Amino acid sequence: MAAVAESKGRGSAVVMALYLLFLMLPIYWLLNMSLKTNREILGVFSLWPQNPTLANYKTILTDPSWYMGYVNSMIYVVMNTVISITVALPAAYAFSRYRFLGDKHLFFWLLTNRMAPAAVFALPFFQLYSSIGLFDTHIAVALAHCLFNVPLAVWILEGFMSGVPREIDETAYIDGYSFPRFFVKIFMPLIASGIGVAAFFCFMFSWVELLLSRTLTSVNAKPIAATMTRTVSASGMDWGVLAAAGILTIIPGALVIWFVRNYIAKGFALGRV
Amino acid sequence: MMDKPVNNRAWFLVLPVLLLVAFSAVLPLMTVVNYSVQDTFGGNEFFWAGLEWFDEVIHSDRIRAALGRQILFSAIILAIEIPLGIFVALNMPKKGFWASFCLVLMALPLLIPWNVVGTIWQVFGRVDIGLLGHTLKALGIDYNYVNDAIDAWITIIVMDVWHWTSLVALLCYAGLQSIPDAYYQAAKIDQASRWKVFRYIELPRMQGVLLIAVLLRFMDSFMIYTEPFVVTGGGPGNATTFLSIDLVKTAIGQFDLGPAAAFSLIYFLVILLISFVFYTVMTKDQGGQ
Amino acid sequence: MTKIILENLAHSYLPNPTKDSDWALKPMNMTWQDGGAYALLGSSGCGKSTLLNIISGLLVPSRGRILFGDQDVTNLPTAARNIAQVFQFPVVYDTMSVRDNLAFPLRNRGMAEADVAKRVAEVAAMIGMTDTLDRRAKGLTADAKQKISLGRGMVRQDVNAILFDEPLTVIDPHMKWELRTQLKDLHRQFGHTMIYVTHDQTEALTFADQVVVMYDGRVVQAGTPQALFDTPEHTFVGYFIGSPGMNVIDAQVNGNIATVEGAQIALMHGFGALSGKTQLGIRPEFLRLSTGDDGLPYQISRIEDVGHHRILRGKVGTADVNVIVPEGQPIPADANRIIPDPAHTHVYVDDWRVDPAKAERAA
């Protein structure tokens, strides 16, 4: 209602402006650096590039050892998202619709995996995937990230599914739908925003994770994040390229946010508000 | 919901998740348990070591110090990010263009790879080329996160606040959005002060999302690895060596499998325990009566 | 306590209203007498909640003034107006006990704790919640929560008016009746001005002394329930009040003769020659079945027995017309005509009733 909104005055605007400034400054600084030459970065201190250059971006986009990092990251992130959502959908349906032997324990146990420190799993994963010949493959990273993404996806989807009245399932069965057909044709469209939110989170956590993805890869599936750390230490601080690489890692996230912007708030509450 | 039908065939629907998580969690965890009770003198020969490693871990001053730092870090993070997140959420525009604008910008730090977050702050805080470090130096403040433990802590805390406060704020915002206008109108008519509106309308409505926020922030801050590792590498000295950094050093750096495994299990259990305590305390209130 | 005057009041939710339809509330003048029990009746979207929120100060009107007695309160905030309002859905402070909920508006105004306790006890007795005063509000049923909302609305004795915005929507039917009776009693007892918004005519007619009917952002009629029934000033009032509503039939009117579908009937008054969309409005209660050639040609399509009377559904030409036949009166098998009671036959031009007295003076 208008009157309520109006009561938020100038004070709120100032608070938000300061907070957003705080969030944006470091990112701006990175952007600023990415458009400078190394000489300018180290030589003059300036708030914006004096001689803007795209050379740093060109370095990255023309060198396979750089840009393959992005390709690798995208491959395992997409694989992980697809796997997580696919297995989580039926499980979330089971949790939201039925009681069964050990359901509560199972649900809690799934969630405990979200609490497992990645550091704990780094070494065992390394050994496990090496022993079955999956080391340095995209699927290894995708599967490893399922450790925390599958429980999260189940949790989010269960929240959205519980919001769909059960009468809809029953009506569909009475109308003669088989379970798989009902699930795909009727139920999934109903929780489309939930699936979107779950996919967003899987994407997010898989995209930002480094410890496991670095441990499980060496060359062929090396993620961009790892490429950054290694190249930097090897080439004696090429600040401009580092900054450009950093900015390029922000772009996929920014794109994804743009697509889900209308669901962000509800999504971050995992459909449970 | 009480009226869900009992159907044990639902297990078939859960089976894929079960197999997948068993593969990626149970199997590795068994390896960890296995290592934690064995010793090796090289090669592939292992000996039963009983609880020796657990004993060593529990009495290790190094790990105890790391645990202390970890608890202090998580406590500071929660103490800053939860109130700040609530405060930001309360000041966000409710709808329209500016609401979307704020949401998109706020979500941005959450989707930056964690090592890039570290890189951003590593650069930002540098005295020679970073805006923050340079400005502080220009103001005559002696700031150097590489050599000074306090400065390193401040940098990492500010970085974490920068990185994660938006998550808390977005959760609280979602909670606030679910409050019908009638509540605010009733409060006006009842002549409730701004504080009372917060205390009796907004805070109770945010309880559920705050629980999620506290749990997520606690777990993730307790497991923090990448960001401080990039910024300080755990230093100066061991000043910012948190549990995960210490663990990775032991396990992958020194290949001390036994102690690392025992350490892992204890670490995991501590997180479970504290999460459980948080969960119990924060839901205790919800029964009614 | 004081009377509430609306002067040239109008409201639009748009910043720059241009068309007539941009206005949620069209310009109106109205006076709410001190101590009156009013019902504000209309279908959803007719502007009744907007009007209520303007009176309580939750909305500032785009135009016009609101006066409480002599004081202009148009720009005063809600708190300064001393109004109580109860909303459609229960608003309770979940974390407080029932007692604290009821005490909340009093404590916020700095009332002494002893007086608060006394007043809360009184209100709790009124709404029948003395036993549950110390329970947390959260676990209560929707009924109980709405009773708390009602109680909070009535706990302050010095209010200028109590506004109810469809307060019984979530309440069980039998409980509705009970609460409405209680509200009525409270009104008699304490004499607060009460304005009760509803879309349910039964609720409006049983609660209020004065019913204000709104349609499309306008007050179309304000009057006693009897007046609304006998002489609806607008076809909407005719439709909306009564069960079934008033029949509205297209007609040509010339002097004191109305022509419908070729049949002529006599009117009690002369109206001259009317132009515009001319219609007759006759309530089903005032139509009599007949055979032969007098009255209007009528074709019965269905008979509904609703207990104490029967409702005939049928048509005059293309217009749907309902007739109420009292119990015990036979329905002739060959009935093909209806004869209106001239005393209760109204003439409408462009949906507004033509006042016969004025029409006669003009003619």
UniProtKB/TrEMBL annotation, chain A:
Highest taxon, organism lineage: Bacteria
Keyword GTP-binding among UniProt keywords: no
GO biological process: transmembrane transport
InterPro entries: BP-dep_ABC_trans_perm (IPR050901), MetI-like (IPR000515), MetI-like_sf (IPR035906)
Chief location category: membrane
Domain ABC transmembrane type-1: 70-260
Topological type in the membrane: Multi-pass membrane protein
GO cellular component: plasma membrane
Record family assignment: Belongs to the binding-protein-dependent transport system permease family.
Protein known as: Carbohydrate ABC transporter permease
Organism of derivation: Paracoccus amoyensis
TrEMBL record, chain C:
GO molecular function: ABC-type ferric iron transporter activity; ATP binding; ATP hydrolysis activity
One GO CC term, this protein: ATP-binding cassette (ABC) transporter complex, substrate-binding subunit-containing
Secretion signal, residue range per the UniProt entry: none
InterPro entries: AAA+_ATPase, ABC_transporter-like_ATP-bd, ABC_transpr_FbpC, ABC_transpr_MalK/UgpC-like, Mo/tungstate-bd_C_term_dom, NA-bd_OB-fold, P-loop_NTPase
Residue stretches making up the ABC transporter domain: 4-241
Keyword Mitochondrion: no
Keyword Cell wall biogenesis/degradation: no
Keywords associated with the record: ATP-binding, Cell membrane, Membrane, Nucleotide-binding, Transport
Gene3D superfamilies in the cross-refs: 2.40.50.100, Nucleic acid-binding proteins (2.40.50.140), P-loop containing nucleotide triphosphate hydrolases (3.40.50.300)
Sequence similarity: Belongs to the ABC transporter superfamily.
Protein name per the record: ABC transporter ATP-binding protein
